Amino acid sequence: ISKADFSCPPWFSSNAKKLIKRILDPNPLKRITIAELHQNEWFKKGYIPTRFEQVDATLDDVDAIFDESGDSRNLVVERREEGPVLPATMNAFDLISTSQGLNLSSLFEKQMGLVKRETRFTSKRPANEIISQIERAAMPLGFDVKKNNHKMKLRGEKTGRKGHLAVTTEVFQVAPSLCMVELRKSGGDTLEFHK
Class for domain 88-194, per CATH? Predict the structure, then answer.
């Protein structure tokens, strides 16, 4: 949560992604409250409120439950790893899911005609170099660039016919000497994205 570093599957709707972003906001003052969550349109879709029964529990009952689960082997421990940040790795299942022929996302999302909202390519260059090259190419084209390790968000300065063009870029390590780069339109016009 402190970094708000997460990604959503491509078949998540934009409203679901916005809600998740509000839930995982690292700033507790901006994070969505339970009351706001219950008022969110995406959340209310098909929601049936839970009815709770009133239970009379004493402090002794609570202590007994904690004593039963007091085994330290069940505790969650956070580990922090130091060292260079590496790009996300992809296994065979991840690669298969990116294949158009085997991509199941069409079962979960509405297709946007024939024009794709994403493109991928591979490179034998290191991930840091790929990100730097994309940044150097995007800045003269009028994009505001925000980088976070091997992910990058590009936002166009000019307002197009559907707002500012926004592109999310991520570099995945497929093999020790091979990276896959994914560019996904996250806002604006799809035709502008392809230009």
Answer: alpha beta
Q: What share of the chain is helix, strand, coil (3-state, %, to 5)?
A: 35, 25, 45
Q: For 48, what's the count of Cα atoms within 13 Å in the CB-facing half-sphere? A: 1
Task: Determine the residue type at 186.
Answer: S
| pTM score over 0.90 | no
- Collect all residues with Cβ–Cβ distance below 8 Å to 12 and sequence separation of at least 6: 20
pLDDT tens readout for residues 145-183: 888 888 888 888 777 777 788 888 888 888 888 888 888
Torsion angle defined by CA atoms of residues 6, 18, 105 and 147, in that order, rounded to the nearest 10 degrees: -40
Q: Which of 142, 133, 110 is nearest to 183 (CA)?
A: 133
Q: How many CA atoms lie within 13 A of 83 on its CB side?
A: 4
The radius of gyration of the chain from alpha carbons, rounded to an integer in Å, stands at 22
**Residues 77/33/19/155 CA torsion (nearest 10 deg):** -90
Domain spans, the chain: 14-74, 88-194
For residues 195 and 184, give the distance between their C-alpha atoms in angstroms, rounded to a whole number.
13
CB-count exposure of residue 152 (10 Å: 0-12, 13-18, 19+) = buried
One-letter-per-residue 3-state SS of 58-98: CHHHHHHHHHHCCCHHHCCCCCCCCCCCCCEECCHHHHHHH
